[in-house]
Amino acid sequence: MSETQTLHAAFAAKIDAVLEALEAEAVLPAGVSRSNVTVEPPRDPSHGDLATNAAMVLAKQAKTNPRALAEKIVEKLSDDPLIDAAEIAGPGFINLRLANANWLREIGTIAALKGDYGRSVRGAGRTVNVEYVSANPTGPMHMGHCRGAVVGDALAALLEYAGHTVIREYYVNDAGAQVQTLARSAHLRYREALGEDIGEIPEGFYPGDYLKPVGQKLADEFGDAYVAAPESEWLGLFREKSVAAMMDMIRADLAMLGIHHNVFASEAELQAAGKPEAAEKWLRAHDLVYDGVLEAPKGKTPEDWEPVELPLFRSTRFGDDQDRPIKKSDGNWTYFGADLAYHMQKAEKADELIDIWGADHAGTVKRIKAAVAALSEGEGKPIPFDVKLVQMVQLLRGGEPVKMSKRSGNFITIADMVEEVGKDVVRFTMLTRKPEAQMDFDFAKVVEASKDNPVFYVQYAHARIASTRRKAAAENIHPADDSLDLLGEAELALVKLAAQFPRQVEAAAQAREPHRIAFYLYDLAAAFHAFWNLGNDDPSKRIILSDKVNLTQSRLFMADQIGQVIRNGLALLGVEAVEEL
RNA sequence: GCGCCCGUAGCUCAGCUGGAUAGAGCACGAGACUUCUAAUCUUGAGGCCACAGGUUCGAAUCCUGUCGGGCGCACCA
User: Arginyl tRNA synthetase N-terminal domain: from which residue to which, for each copy (predicted)?
Assistant: First the structure.
């Protein structure tokens, strides 16, 4: 065990070694799968510090009963000096009571590892591409994008912390009809900037004021050169310029949330490089694309529906309800056709792909998963691919829904939100709910400085620790670790919870669920507040005791490490750890 | 009609990929401020985990069906 191995890692390894040994003794069959074995703190603390289900999970494979197997495991653990007691309980749990030295040592481990306490190598450097946001470059970021942006960003940070190499990617849909509309809308604003009265923005154009500066810039750059020119002369140019302007705006919006992507992948470039053609060719060669006619949609048949022959991808082979067109009848690629090629492109540089989508795209998950399965399995290296859907957020203000109208360009933007309630509130609130459940976001509630608001609660715990340190420093007492053995049960209980952080990181990363970190931090903060308040009833339990310098130094040192864990967790969520409120 | 997500305390939500007696916050009842920040804490009450079957040593968790809520169901993105 190295100096800086976390307690969690050490005991997981210990159990693993025992099982390995039992395998060598043929108590367990060779090559038995240990993936279901867990080592974790039991819910009920009276059951000890750690519990493992190893005996129950492996009993069947070992052709014995759980308790008999548990005895063999306990036998190997009982002479370990770091374990005070190993007991078999219930149906075959093994409960471990750890020597206090473990926890005192863990305080030192946190202090030594600092910002790296909780960092894991579990990901083994495997490259994961997380694609998130990918909002169309036709306007500012609005609320609909916010949750996916925050969840994707926190997930990326979490995976990185868990030992993966992470590519944060944004797919820029700069090739479809929507960006042509953008270009035409920008052309209107361009004429407006040159003094023309354009009146009401017509139906079918983007009406938002955010295009005015774009028009002005185009006017400054090109004068009146394109006012009367045919569309063919300016459409491409204006598209490029206005998309670039939109992306600048989007990047600025994302920066307000603390989000920065590594890669902005252009759909137009993807198409210019002939990637969709290459994908189609490959799929046709493997009989996964054929020319066929779609059935009329069931339930409601559109009036203008007519059967047309199109190149179809056999997504039904992979569980989709219908084969899906990759090209439109006008010869352009469908969104799906290009997206399929795009995923192939992402897979070239990653071992694993994750997409974060809004729930309104749920209907297209099957086809894209089918496509990735087809492309990667066909090439003999299946790429794990996951689409995480984030559900809708309903905006409220004092319980009343906030009205928005997309048509008039009147919607709540991310910039509005961050300005009103702050980045930390937006991020933390979005992360204190599992993404697949719908959520309400009430402007009135999230800014309340305590009640329904976990952000302040967690930050307050961190601020209290900082304030205590300042207060002690004024008395010339500073944190020190040379007499940690003065710490009692109350402190150790807190340390035990903090020691769970590395395990929480691994579990959250494996499940791809950053919200678990938020809930864990809430629990840790609650434990700290409770610890703090012990000093109200019993002054000897206060952290600062002027007449007991050694104990004070130790408590300060311990508290600092709790603060460190809170900082590490908040960093994963992209939330500031403040020194005072 | 079909697909996906959700349904856990009065309300808002967790529940660690199937574990031991299902947990927090708010609200409600009872308490703790000459303080290291009471922006906090202690304590009580509150549950047929939507419903019905199934899988097994064991289910809130997995499977099937029913009911209820949300989202989607073009060659749109």
Answer: 9-98
User: Which of A43, A27, A17 is closest to A95 using CA atoms?
Assistant: A43
Q: Which residue is nearest to nucleotide B77 (CA to C1')?
A: A335
Q: Are A131 and A264 in contact (CB under 8 A)?
A: no
Looking at the structure, give the CATH architecture of the domain made up of residues A127-173+262-390.
3-Layer(aba) Sandwich (3.40)
**Short-list A395, A550, A404, A397, CA closest to A485:** A550
Which residue is nearest to the C1' sugar atom of B17, using CA? A511
What is the signed CA dihedral for A120, A124, A129, A132, rounded to 10 degrees?
A: -10
Domain boundaries, chain A: 7-98, 127-173+262-390, 454-573
SS3 A546: coil
In strand B, which positions have an atom below 7 A from any protein CB? 1-7, 12-17, 19-21, 23-27, 32, 35-42, 57, 69-77
A225-264 confidence digits (pLDDT tens)? 999 999 999 999 999 999 999 999 999 999 999 999 999 9
Q: Could you please state the CATH topology (level 3) that the domain comprising A7-98 is classified under.
A: Gyrase A; domain 2 (3.30.1360)
Q: What is the pLDDT of residues A38-93, one digit of tens each?
A: 888 888 888 889 999 999 888 888 888 888 899 999 999 988 999 999 999 888 89
What is the pTM for the complete model shown?
0.94
The nucleotide whose C1' lies nearest the CA of A59 is: B57
